[in-house]
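Entry for the shared binder. Reason: the reviewer on the internal report wants the predicted structure included alongside the sequence.
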Amino acid sequence: MTARSKYRIGLVQMACGPDPEENVGKAMKRVGELSSRGASVVCLPELFRTQYFCQREDHSLFDEAEPIPGPTTERAAAVAKEHRVTILVPIFERRSAGVYHNTTVVLGPDGTVLGRYRKMHLPDDPLYYEKFYFAPGDLGFPTFALPTGRAGVLICWDQWYPEAARIEALSGAEVLFYPTAIGWHPAEKEEFGAAQHDAWETVQRAHAVANGLYVAVPNRVGLEHGDVRGNRVDGPGIEFFGGSFVADPFGRVIAKASHDREELLVAEVDPREVETVRRFWPFLRDRRVDAYGPITHRFLDPT
């Protein structure tokens, strides 16, 4: 095996305000800052262009969706080209009239579109009404050949599904990026907040361990009510809990952000570490692929 070089990845943990253009401008500035710190791949948080609008069902908010290419991806493409950096750009994708997706676009360091991932698992919970806005992803679980190495992209609610992480690992990913918008319901935070955050981080560290790869998770921070262009909605809102992190192929957290402020994370990816961990913990080798047929069923009813 020819040893490949180490490289740095960057994550943007940011608060999102009511003005979409200001959010995009802030995000692009952060990409430049991470590039100056040596990051060659930068991932932005889920739906960063706006506050998290899925807290309510509002048909007027479909106006915020964009085609690919569109204003946000074109602006990000210029930044990618300027800084010679790969950028993972989550957007509200307008595919056609009436068909929209929660999508991450992968832009290469020359600004070209390397591919896209459409969110496969969509929540429908209080303040997370994503099934109203988004059609389920239909591109499967692709991985992308970045100049630095092969990477996978999954989005937020996908974090809880080991099947998604495993498929992308089997497709050659050495890093899984999870752009995220997750937080606490304020009324639940005191009683359940610590356990909720711990479960969220633990399940993703488990994906790193089970698949012998890096996991990188940028989240947003701050209390939001889904205020888009000044259209504020009354209610408890969501307190996005930050905690962005990178875990290595043995699940060790090698970079981590706070819960309450904007931060930039940089972490080193060593392809050799993926190789080493998988040699000593050969979970992929020992899989019983002949016995896993039942996993494709919704549920196995007792006989």
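Summary line for the report: The chain has one domain: 7-285.
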